[in-house]
Design goal:
two-stranded antiparallel sheet; 9 helices; 7% strand; mainly alpha; elongated
Length: 239
């Protein structure tokens, strides 16, 4: 029986609704599969931000998706993407501080009977060079964090809160009674001091040779040191 124009219109509408339902179902199933894949790699507690009762972000997610993998999330990088006053030196110093803080959180490897095995008393075991190096590195990282805290002084809370704890600038400012813009300004001042702290840790470089002239061996004059000298030195003088 031939259908009328009204019937064809109703059939087309029904077909469009069915297609929309199939697309929505396929999209939902794809999202569930992706969630299961991500959950197998990183728990949702690390992939999702911590929110307050009003929905504001207290702490951003620990990790974020970067293509097929996950990378550690950074509240500072999120701020830097919208603020040009945060430089590459700031990010480099902050990354070093965050890594040092992470290494110094718990000193666990090889720490059982550490004092006994490194003392002169009767030992129940010995520390291998590998384990000793790891423990020394963790202790050094802890000392680095303590030094940075003393150097920054009253700028430490804003730097540690955003760089180490991963707090959002708005949430940190709300806790400390300042606006987000003020919190970012305080953070930049703290990062400036943090850069100066790591610059002060660099060993002094003295007496670097900027240029050298190569001459034949037989043209190098040799200065003879008297035999009564405390040590014998053969010095070459480049003219």
């Amino acid at each position: 029986m031939p259908r009328t124009a009204a019937d064809r219109k109703v059939a087309k509408a029904q077909h469009r609704r069915e297609q929309a339902a199939r697309r929505a179902r396929a999209k939902r199933e794809a999202a569930e599969r992706e969630e299961a894949r991500q959950e197998a790699i990183v728990p949702a507690a690390q992939r999702q931000p911590v929110r307050a009762a009003d929905g504001s972000i207290i702490r951003r997610a620990r990790v974020q998706v970067d293509g097929p993998a996950f990378v550690k999330s950074s509240a500072l990088c999120h701020i830097a993407s919208r603020n040009t006053r945060i430089t590459a030196d700031h990010l480099k110093a902050a990354d070093r501080l965050a890594k040092a803080a992470q290494r110094s959180e718990t000193i666990t490897i090889g720490s059982a009977n550490y004092g006994e095995r490194t003392s002169g008393r009767v030992q129940s075991g010995v520390l291998s060079g590998y384990v000793q190096a790891i423990v020394d590195g963790q202790i050094e990282a802890a000392q680095e964090v303590v030094g940075a805290r003393k150097w920054l002084g009253h700028w430490w809370p804003v730097v540690s809160g955003i760089v180490i704890d991963g707090q959002d600038a708005t949430a940190w400012g709300h806790v400390h009674g300042v606006y987000r813009e003020t919190a970012v300004k305080m953070l930049i001042v703290g990062l400036n001091r943090l850069v100066a702290f790591y610059e002060a840790l660099k060993p002094a470089r003295r007496g670097r040779i900027r240029a050298a002239e190569i001459v034949p061996r037989d043209e190098i004059p040799i200065r003879t040191i008297p035999p009564d000298d405390t040590e014998t030195i053969r010095a070459a003088h480049f003219s």
